[in-house]
TrEMBL record:
The keyword Transmembrane applies. It is found in: Membrane. This is Transport protein mmlH related protein. Pfam families: MFS_1. Its main location: membrane. GO terms for molecular function: carboxylic acid transmembrane transporter activity. It comes from Acidilobus saccharovorans (strain DSM 16705 / JCM 18335 / VKM B-2471 / 345-15). One of its GO terms (cellular component) is plasma membrane. The chain crosses the membrane at residues 35-56, 68-86, 92-114, 126-146, 152-172, 193-213, 219-246, 258-277, 283-305, 317-338, 344-364. Residues 2-367 form the Major facilitator superfamily (MFS) profile domain. It is a multi-pass membrane protein.
Amino acid sequence: MTTASVTLSFLWAAVSVLSLGYDIEGVSLSLKASVSEASVAILLSWEVGAVASVLLGRLADRIGDRPVMVMSSSLLALGLLLAAASRGLCGLYVAWALVGVGANSNNGIAYYVAADLHPSRSGTTIGVLESLYFVGAMIMSGLYAALGASGWRLTFLLLSALNVISAVLLALSKFPPRRQAVALRLSSIPAKPLLFSSTIMASYFILTVPLLTYPTYTLSLAGIGGSLASVVISAASAAGIISYVSIGALSDRVGRRLPLAIAGIMGAASGALMLALTSNKAVFATAYAVAVAASGFFSAAGAWVTELFPGSSEGLAINLSLLFGRVIGGLAPFLVTLPSSGRGLIMAVLVASTILIVSSALAPRARTAETKERKT
């Protein structure tokens, strides 16, 4: 039951944090604000959530994963409820900051709980978890198509209820005993693994946040819209799901380093294609799907990161790594809005891919799955 409850909570956290991006036009219209003003809420969700998730990760190290994951799902439910009731930008900003806190802290803890539950298949497990963001994208596409831009309040209420259910299921689940309350200092976290994990997380968020936050806007840069955009988004999401699971499984067999390098090369190639042939819809759509698939490196990277730190400091160390990535990644969507036919998006893809290739070559040695099992 624990695996199922953690997976469901991750899924609804993913759908929740993506939901505003899909309904941004309807929200801005209802609140009599511009799209850019409403989009500040998304920025706040990443930046506030990044900082708060570190504190909640530290709390999880002291009191355990289950109560903090229950708290995260509860915060998501509260934030979505407040967002549905908001009548102005200030209310939306506060509500979506809570959504960011809930989603970011849920994800950070879920990664290593899942890895601990299935230590010999941690890459595959994290790949399945992270692929749920693409399942979430498909769910939001369906909700948006069914309810339209004016149905955002109903969407938020529905997601709030689903997060309440997740909180109850998490509370009833039995989590693996691992950490104990300890007096932990930052100096106890090894510096080189922390630098690597922070860098790799930054490359992931730089790559994926622009691609997933405003998919329709991203494709419009190449003149792809309407039903064609829906087809491309669905195809790219399917490619993402396959990639996350496949790269995770591959990393369990051959190690983490090679899949990261392959994904970096895929990302660099897709960025180069988009840069050279932005006006070609078929090439841009294909390159977009390849870039989404390249983000599957997180399956290997996420598993690698969970293997770098001792169990007593794992929550704090991983959330510190995610902090840097989320702060940088939270700014990345604004790159997409730069002029010159999507040069901002292309820049994000190329920068992330370069960081990934270099990091995979210089990364520290991780624990084996067997060591991970002995640690728990």
